[in-house]
Design goal:
The chain is α+β, with helices and mostly antiparallel strands. 35% of the residues lie in helices and 18% in strands. The chain is globular. It starts with a helix and ends with a helix. Bound molecules: 1,6-di-O-phosphono-alpha-D-fructofuranose (AFP). 1,6-di-O-phosphono-alpha-D-fructofuranose binds next to loops. One of its GO terms (molecular function) is metal ion binding.
């Protein structure tokens, strides 16, 4: 086989697996309309550049858009995410240098009562600007913003974007930032929803009171269940910089090639191992967890769970790093409900739902113990949710334990 043929067949396999994961027989596939189905109709056009460089994220997205022109605006948003992740990766890497002045605290507390680090604020601003100037962003909600923001109406020449499709972006710009001073991995988490045009606010024409109804509509745009996500991604800033995404048809991992300055497809059609032997939760909280979870984890430690594997612990305390390892090696990552925090610690909208989407699209499961995370509609933007996600069989064992406990409570 010549070089182009080898490359072409690899891509066709990737595209085939994207289509396959949309099969209605796949219990994990979302209830999607045809707009989100990636068609295999036309053979992609390739050149020898990719044979030398690998498939860049830009190339990947343009192939997707070529085959699915209706996803064109999403391609533009991913262009902004690509740039923002590279910029944040540089900021995090340089943050220890005395000249960077990005370390330490901002002196502000965010809406969840957490001390904001300078990097939280800088990366929030960076991502906000990158997405805003695509002209495809309707509303944005961030861990670092008290309320959702409508940024499109404040763009210069906003009118030129009036006919383009808009999206709602929800994100945590720098998750795990409390670890950054110790050089521990951090990450950015992003979820993308469709946008309801009726939410545009003209800030020039209204006082706070007059706008409240529109603001409520705007807010409603962001309060969507994970099932409505059209795309999700995370960037992990670690030994390498990774960008992992799903468009609802499989999970794809890219690694930043620092020499090229491009994300290169390194993990096509990721599949999380179905069973594993890794527990990744803050075990200092074990005694406060729900009894079914405590019992299951204890069985795993003794090698008495369904798989018979003796489990081992791996916990960074930085969700993106822990989820990335879980995707690659399998196991369970969680921040479950406990007696002190009945809804756990992690936020549903911009942490729980996008990560659950990515994990499910790689063949894993994500639950609160009692409910699939993707089915929960948030009541407010910064709502927390208990999370247990990872290898299908291991998460199922937890779900079964909760079901058995509630059945015996009823009996
Ligand atoms: P920070 O962003 O404040 O560092 O919190 C990180 C995080 O939200 C998530 O990334 C971790 O999984 C989780 O908190 C760790 O929490 P514990 O320190 O309570 O284990």
């Amino acid at each position: 086989m010549n070089r182009i043929a080898v490359f072409s067949s690899t891509i066709l396999l990737i595209l085939a697996s994207r289509v396959e994961s949309f099969s209605p027989a796949n219990p994990l596939s979302k209830n999607v309309d045809s707009r989100h189905i990636i068609h295999q109709a036309k053979a992609p056009v390739f050149d020898e550049v990719c044979d030398v460089t690998g498939i860049t994220l830009k190339r990947f997205m343009s192939e997707v858009v070529l085959l699915n022109p209706e996803l064109g605006e999403l391609g533009t948003l991913f262009g902004a995410i690509d740039t923002a992740c590279k910029a944040i990766s540089n900021l995090v890497k340089r943050s220890q240098l005395p000249s960077s002045e990005t370390l330490g605290y901002q002196g502000e507390v965010n809406i969840q009562g957490e001390d904001q680090k300078k990097l939280d604020v800088i990366t929030n601003d960076l991502l906000k600007r990158a997405l805003r100037f695509t002209g495809r962003l309707g509303v944005l909600a961030s861990e670092e913003e008290d309320e959702p923001l409508d940024l499109i109406s404040s763009l210069p020449n906003e009118a030129i974007f009036s006919d383009t499709e808009k999206y709602v972006c929800v994100f945590d710009p720098l998750d795990g930032s409390s670890n950054v001073d110790a050089g521990i991995p951090t990450g950015t988490i992003i979820g993308i929803y469709e946008h309801d045009e009726t939410c545009a606010i003209d800030f020039d024409d209204c006082t706070d009171d007059e706008c409240s109804e529109q603001e409520a509509q705007c807010l409603a745009n962001t309060l969507q269940a994970g099932n409505n996500l059209v795309a999700a991604a995370y960037c992990l800033y670690s030994s390498s910089t990774f960008l992992v995404l799903t468009l609802g048809a499989g999970t794809y991992g890219f690694t930043l090639d620092e020499n090229l300055g491009e994300f290169i497809l390194s993990h096509p059609a990721m599949k999380i191992p179905e069973t594993s032997s890794i527990i990744s939760m803050n075990e200092a909280n074990t005694f406060m967890w729900d009894q079914p979870l405590q019992d299951t984890v204890m069985k795993w430690k003794r090698g008495e769970g369904k798989s018979g594997n003796s489990f081992s612990s791996r916990y960074i305390g930085s969700m993106v790093g822990d989820v990335h390892r879980t995707l690659l090696y399998g196991g369970i990552f969680g921040y479950p409900s406990d007696t002190k925090n009945p809804n756990g610690k992690l936020r549903l909208l911009y942490e729980g739902a996008p990560m659950s989407f990515i994990v499910e699209q790689a063949g894993g499961l994500a639950t609160t113990g009692k409910q699939r995370v993707m089915e929960i509609t948030p009541d407010y933007v910064h709502q927390r949710v208990p999370i247990i996600l990872g290898s299908k069989n291991d998460v199922q064992e937890v779900i079964d334990a909760y079901e058995n406990a509630s059945a015996s409570a009823v009996a």
